[in-house]
Design brief:
CATH class of the largest domain: Alpha Beta
Largest sheet: 10 strands, mixed
Enzyme class: transferase
Order of helices and strands: EEHEHHEHEHEHEEEEEEEEE
Number of domains: 2
Strand order of the largest sheet: 5-4-3-2-6-7-8-15-10-13
Helix content: 10-25%
Bound molecules: adenosine-5'-triphosphate, the ligand Cc1ncc(C[n+]2csc(CCO)c2C)c(N)n1
Family: Belongs to the thiamine pyrophosphokinase family.
Number of helices: 6
Subcellular location: Cytoplasm, Cytosol
Function: Catalyzes the phosphorylation of thiamine to thiamine pyrophosphate (TPP). TPP is an active cofactor for enzymes involved in glycolysis and energy production. Plant leaves require high levels of TPP for photosynthesis and carbohydrate metabolism.
Number of strands: 15
Distance between the termini: 36 Å
GO biological process, one term: thiamine diphosphate biosynthetic process
Structural class: alpha/beta
Radius of gyration: 18 Å
CATH topology of the largest domain: Rossmann fold
């Protein structure tokens, strides 16, 4: 079984180069929720920046507040999304016109009322990523957690729908990603920016067997299911966590203030 490694390098000001591994190519999707304070950092690391519908209002309204030492007009012009995509029922007209005039591509999919704006954005990123580069793609989603529970679950469902793509859901307080059962996983903890609180949660179906190392409450061939045991309020004990399971799991870890 192949090994998949994970590290939250994107929360650091500069991403360290590793001679042994290809660096990931990041894409950013901004959702319609209060922007996390580290959004300018994610923006800097991303090669492609999208706003999901009303996410564009957040970049327009809140990015200047996150960079208080810079001229708000210049900030607004500099933080220009490459694409705004969604059903366009939340973006304000002045915001759409502003970015459209700067050259942002606007993709109106109001005819599709069966998939969320995040789903639409992830599908676009997959479409424009050449097959050879897909293995190194990592999609960061800002503003995915907290707020409305139906939206949060919809965002988690996107992890399941695109389970072969690396996607990280982020809020100010924590991140969530999917650990597919097809791989064993090594999670390298950057203790300056994340932890110690973490969780491992079976999604969709129970896990008959999960084994971990590096946690305060490790699992040893343990069953996890809703209504039974799931691993919440766990604590990172080592810099390297390993996980192996017969089911897809959600990995969540707190982000330091
Ligand atoms: N409160 C929230 N919590 C988590 N994610 C959110 C929240 N609000 C919006 N989002 C995310 O941002 C995306 C864009 O938000 P937007 O408000 O434009 O969606 P929407 O389709 O108009 O939602 P709705 O019509 O259900 O209110 C959503 O698809 C969702 O992924
Ligand atoms: C069974 C079912 N439940 C809810 C919706 C509504 N819905 C789901 S995604 C979406 C787009 C949001 O931008 C909307 C309106 C549906 N279509 N089918």
């Amino acid at each position: 079984m192949d090994l998949m490694t994970h590290c939250t390098h994107f929360l650091l000001p500069t991403i360290p180069l590793d001679d042994n591994k290809p660096t990931l190519t990041y894409a950013l999707v901004v959702l319609n929720q209060k922007l996390p304070t580290f959004t300018p950092l994610l923006w800097k690391h991303a090669k492609l920046r999208l706003c999901a519908d009303g996410g564009a209002n957040r970049v327009f309204d809140e990015m200047p507040d996150l960079l208080p030492n810079q001229d708000p007009i210049l900030v607004r012009n500099r933080y220009k999304p490459d694409v705004i995509k969604g059903d366009m029922d939340s973006i304000r007209t002045e915001v759409q016109d502003f970015y459209s005039n700067l050259g942002t591509k606007i993709v109106d999919e109001s005819h599709d009322q069966d998939t969320t704006d995040l789903h639409k954005c992830v599908a676009l990123i997959e479409d424009v990523t050449p097959n050879l580069e897909k293995a190194n793609l990592c999609i960061l989603v800002a503003g995915a957690l907290g707020g409305r529970f139906d939206h949060e679950i919809g965002n988690i469902n996107v992890l399941c729908r695109f389970s072969n793509t690396r996607i990280v859901l982020l809020s100010e307080d924590c991140l969530i990603q999917l650990l597919p059962r097809s791989h064993r996983h090594e999670i390298n903890i950057l203790s300056s920016v994340e932890g110690p609180h973490c969780g491992l949660i079976p999604i969709g179906i129970p896990s008959a067997s999960t084994t971990t190392t590096g946690l305060q409450w490790d699992l040893d061939n343990t069953e996890m299911k809703f209504g039974g045991l799931i691993s919440t309020s766990n604590i990172v004990r080592e810099a390297r966590i390993t996980v192996r399971s017969d089911s897809d799991l959600l990995w969540t870890i707190s982000i330091r203030k």
